[in-house]
Design goal:
By secondary structure, the protein is an alpha/beta fold. It is built from seven helices and five strands, in the order αβαβαααβββαα. Helix 1 packs parallel to helix 6 and helix 2 packs across helix 6. It comes from Nocardia tenerifensis.
Length: about 180
Amino acid sequence: MTASSSTDPLLADVPAVDLVRTLTAAGQTVATAESLTAGLLSATIAGVPGASAVLRGGLVVYATDLKHSLGGVSDEILTSEGPVAASTAEQLAVGARTRCGADWGVALTGVAGPDSQDGHAVGTVFLGLAGPGHTEVMRLKLHGDRWTIRIGAAHTAIRELLRCVRQRGRDPIGMGE
C-alpha cells in the first residue's frame, strides 16, 4: 500500500501538499532545524508524494550543544539568551538553510512540557524562517499536551513557510536572490 495524504496522520489539517507543490513550482527547496519537534516537521513534509524534489534534509538539534555544533547558533546567543529564544530560532533557520544548501530554512525551538524551561512557559515556541532575501521569527503560544504542542508547531511552520514562499513568489526581487 502506498502512503497518501489520506493515510498519513501527520498530514491531517495541514497544507503540506500545497507547500510541496508551491516549492516545486518555484524550483525551491527547504531544510529544517528542529528542537522540540525532533523531526516531525521534516516527517510531515516527507509524507507528501514528491517531497523528495523539495526537502533537502533536516537537523534534529534537541540538545543545546547541537544547536551550536550542527545548527550554527553562536555560543554567545546560547549563553545570553538560551536555547528557547527568537535569536536562537533565527540562527537555526539560517543554519539549516546554509548547511543543507536549501533555499528555505525553517527552525522550531520551544517548550513542549510537561514543565517550563528557563522561565518559558509550556507551549512557548519560536519559529524561524530564512529564505531568499527574507528572515523572520515568530513567537507562538500553543496549548495542550506535549503531542498537541509539537504537532501544532510543525503544522504552524508549514502554514507560515507556505505563506512566505507564496509572498516571495509575487516579489520578483526576492525570487532572484
